[in-house]
């Protein structure tokens, strides 16, 4: 193979290199200017991984009055007065107090909630938990020792069954 370029040659077959390539059935390479341009295959965009929902905390020594709305999880260990509307989970820690209506995917009550749970996929009333108000949920878990005063509707899809929901009332008693 030559390291210089000869300008006088008229055909690639006349050169010894071309004859060797033809004899070995190796295709002759064209100069870069004659080669068709091939575009590199485009990488397929991968969907961004869904971000895990973050959790916001209201600490035990904090008292807040207002409104909570968002797409993350909320954990309340202090005191909150106002409505909570989240597309994540709401956890009310032992010793915490929430006054207002609640809408969340999952509501866990280990402290005190004074207000209605208007829409939840699941409500868990833990042993130290107390609920004063009505609740509507897809499912309900009640631990022995917990307290509830109000009406509970659960296990029914409101869109299909208008007003034939299970109702349970508790008056400072234990439900199971």
Number of strands: 14
What structural class results from the helix and strand content? mainly beta
- What is the terminal-to-terminal distance? 90 Å
| Main sheet makeup | 8 strands, parallel, barrel
The outline comes out as extended
For the biggest β-sheet, the strand order reads 4-6-9-11-13-12-10-7
In DSSP terms (H or I, runs of 4 or more residues), the helix count works out at: 1
Write structural notes for this entry:
Helix content is 5%, strand content 43%. The protein is built from one helix and 14 strands, in the order H-E-E-E-E-E-E-E-E-E-E-E-E-E-E. The protein has a domain at 55-173. The protein has an eight-stranded parallel beta barrel. By secondary structure, it is mostly beta strands.
Write the layout of secondary structure elements.
Blueprint: H1 16-23, E1 55-58, E2 63-70, E3 73-76, E4 79-86, E5 89-92, E6 97-99, E7 102-103, E8 106-109, E9 112-114, E10 117-125, E11 130-132, E12 135-142, E13 147-154, E14 166-173
Parallel strand pairs: 1-3, 2-4, 3-5, 4-6, 4-7, 5-8, 6-9, 7-10, 8-10, 9-11, 10-12, 11-13, 12-13
Antiparallel strand pairs: 13-14
Short description:
This protein is mainly beta.
Descriptive keywords:
5% helix, 8-stranded parallel β-barrel, 176 residues, disordered C terminus, 1 helix, 14 strands, single chain, mainly beta
